[in-house]
Amino acid sequence: MILASLALSLPALSGCSSSWFCQDTTAERGEADRKVQVVDTDGQTLGVTVEVVGWRLTPHPQVPADGDKVHFDYRFDGTGEPRGPVVDACAVDQDRVALRCTTVDAAGAWPEPDGTRTGDDWLGVDHPRRVAAVLFLPNDQSYDRPSCATDPKDGGGKHPPKSASTGDQL
Fold first, then answer.
1. 103 contact partners, CB below 8 Å, separation of at least 6
2. Are 130 and 167 within 8 A, CB to CB?
3. How far apart are CA 165 and CA 89, in angstroms?
């Protein structure tokens, strides 16, 4: 009897048999803007700012026959190390509806003498003339913790919001 009781309690203690020990939550998506303070999954600022410093419609030099694309320049300030946050950037229309989004990684930007990191990226949109702005979402998407579904023992916790996509109201 004691052995049977012990055998049943070990999986419960390890967290494998009950979802009570593993809970997934999702952070709330922050407000998009041209310049944002990057936040973690708890909404706390990381001391990093990312800013769209310019954008234009122009054909991509490798595929000019595809027509105009959104080419935007950005700057991370405060990363302090080669790797840093990953944030969503979106081309939006005048109603702030996302026409196309991508993730931008501070690690992919070039280090500048003043400590900032700068870069550029391209977004292909179906109707380039509808683009009114390029905006960043403040949520750091680099937090990659396993979910309860993939690791019920050690997974769980707060995860970044779902990445922005075409059609999202920002």
1. 86, 87, 88, 89, 141, 163
2. no
3. 10
User: Token pair for residue 18?
Assistant: 């009950």
Q: Are 46 and 138 in contact (CB under 8 A)?
A: no
Which amino acid makes up residue 155? G
Q: What is the 3-state secondary structure (H, E, C) of the chain?
A: CHHHHHHHHHHHHHCCCCHHHCCEEECCCCCCECEEEEECCCCCEEEEEEEEEEEEEEECCCCHHHCEEEEEEEEEECCCCCCCCEEEEEEECCCCEEEEEEEEEHHHCEECCCCCEEEEEEECCCCHHHCCEEEECCECCCCCCCCCCCCCCCCCEEECCCCCCCCCEC
Smallest CA-to-CA distance from 99 within 72, 73, 126, 120 is with 126
Burial 13-37 (b: 16+ CB within 10 A, else e): eebeeeeebbeeeebebbebbeebe
Q: Mean pLDDT in runs of 10 for the chain (170 residues)?
A: 48 46 86 96 92 97 94 93 86 97 94 93 95 97 83 80 92
